[in-house]
Amino acid sequence: MVQLWHTSALEKPVAGDNVSDWLSELLDGIDTGITHYYGTADPSSFASWAADELGSLWFDSNTAIGAGGDELGIVVKRWEVLTDAPTYGWRTLGARLYTALEPNVNALTLANQSTTAFTDLDLTGDTSAQAVAVLLMVEVEDSGTIDNAVYAELRKNGTTTDAQERRVHVQVTDIPNTCMMLVECDAAQTIEWAINASAATTFDLRIDVLGYYERA
After folding, report:
1. Residues 140, 146: contact at Cβ < 8 Å?
2. Domains in the chain: how many in total?
3. What pLDDT digit, counting tens, does each position of 14-32 carry?
């Protein structure tokens, strides 16, 4: 049973209710507490929620797997104070489930590359249909002249904001430089990579997937 407590249809017990009504309503409250209002309807819309409801959880199933929406899994929300006024509302907790890949998966290995514009990298076989981000090990190397303009870039597929791009710079000529980074992926589990090289056919790039995050 879900969404049975403190709603327009099933309010909390009040003075004047008989014992059987009290017991039935309290049982509804226990069922609701166990399931955290699991469902698509916002429980705060059924009654005037305010300070008394602080800390309540809602397992919003509008995006549940197999039930429409974005299919990434339910969203966990907590009733909180949102402003100093105060005003109250739902804050999405954004819980994530991490799955490590053992062994790690090599998604891309390129040698002697020149400067390359952003290119799609499909990670469908390396993640799950519910993946929202991947943890990567990225290795770069360049045999040309090294400066701050020699690097590889990665980003979520379709992103165009510079601030959302991750860069790995080559530090020393002919010496690999490796780092770990978290990159969001789109609904098709795709990210993008690009190269800014110092000269033609000198840049090496390797991308390994260490694991991925799903919405828990």
Report:
1. no
2. 2
3. 777 788 877 877 888 888 8
